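Extended Data, panel c. Modelled sequence:
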Amino acid sequence: MYRQNRGFTEAGDIKKVLHSIPGCLIFFADKTASLFDFLLVQRHILNYLSIMEKHFDSEKNPQNIKNISFEDLYAYINAIPALFWSIDVVKNRIEYLNKYALPGLGENSTLIIKNPDYAHSIILDEDRHIFDKFLRCIRERKSGLAVFRIKLYDGTLKWLKIAGNQDIYKTNCYVGYIMDISETAVFIKSIDNS
C-alpha cells in the first residue's frame, strides 16, 4: 500500500510527469489495446506538452511569453479521461496528479493502485495475474501495460487499462495512468463478432 498525496506542488511537476508518460504510449500497439485509446490519450498529452513547451521556452525567450496560469494547466490535465499518478517506489508514496474518477468507482478509483487488496477484491479472478504483473513492473521500475476487467458492486463489468514507466527525472519514481476502456472493448468485441 502507498501513502497518498493528491496534486502538484508546482507547474514544473506537470511537465516532468507528462514528459515521462509518452514513453509508455508505445505499448498501445499491443493487440489488447485499441488505436482509438492511443489517439485519444496521445492527442491530449501532445497538445498539453505543446502548451507546456511554449510556456517553458518563453522563460528563455521573453518575446514569446505565454501567460498560462497553473490553474489553467491543472484544469487541462483534469479534462483528460484518465487518472494520472506518480509513485515514489523508495518512499512507498503515491501522488495522484489529477482528480479524475473512473466511471462506476468514484473516489475508490485511487484505491486500485494504493491498495492491492482492494484491487484484488474487484478484479476478476482470471485477470488478477495481469494486474500483479503490472505491480511487479512498478516495483522494478520497468515500462508496463495491463488491460484487465473489474466487477463493480452492482455487477457491472468494466475494462481498465493501466500503463506506466520510470520517471525520467526521478529514477526512484514510477509514473502512469489508469483509464476506463469499456466502450472500446465493447466496440472491439462487436467487430470480432461481425
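Residues 110 and 128 are 17 Å apart (CA to CA). This feature is highlighted in the accompanying rendering.
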